[in-house]
Amino acid sequence: MNNETKRILLISNSTLYGSGYLDHAEAELRSFLGDVKRVLFVPYALFDRDKYAATAQQRFQKLGYDLTSIHTASDPVQAVRETDAVFIGGGNTFRLLKALYEFNLRGPIRERVSGGMPYIGSSAGSNVAGPTIKTTNDMPIVQPPSFDALGLVSFQLNPHYLDADPNSKHMGETREERIMQFLEENDTPVIGLREGAMLRIEHDQTLLRGSTGARIFRCGEEPKEVLPGATLDLI
Description:
By secondary structure, the protein is an alpha/beta fold. The chain is built from seven helices and twelve strands.
């Protein structure tokens, strides 16, 4: 995939505490999409696709963009080929990936993004941008043919990343421990995106945006804290 032409915005969460749907990402979305006219929404991560699409359509209309949902298209692949941008929303990552396989959308999305089409992912939509969905937080409520995802970026994502609470009496693994277990079996870097954080990938650069920062996990290394505004070298 051509790193120099791809444009990707990966948002940790669709709703931030105290604000409405995508309110915290509004300025970034406007800046990222610019004069794009048509946005194709992919609602496959939630069961009620009509309701989800209506929510996204209302929000993007307020931003000034024409959003249609892929689940209403007679030919989903052609819809990907004809749109100006794709937005894949959050929900259950396993359900989302299964649908991407069922409708044969992985290849067409990769092709369009490689050619410069803007890609926006939120939560599960950010998860599937990585090589696999092995670092999702979700339960496998359905079984996709493979864990292999879109591979738009070379690193794994863990949206909604939570720091350990030193006052908690919970004795299960922390999010950090689970990611370190992934790295015992895999050597792909993982970015833990806190809620309120997002990654913007343009011109062969990966910028950490938003308000909360992230943690970078690499095999054999201590986790690294990164602050908003940082340029990452993981692409």
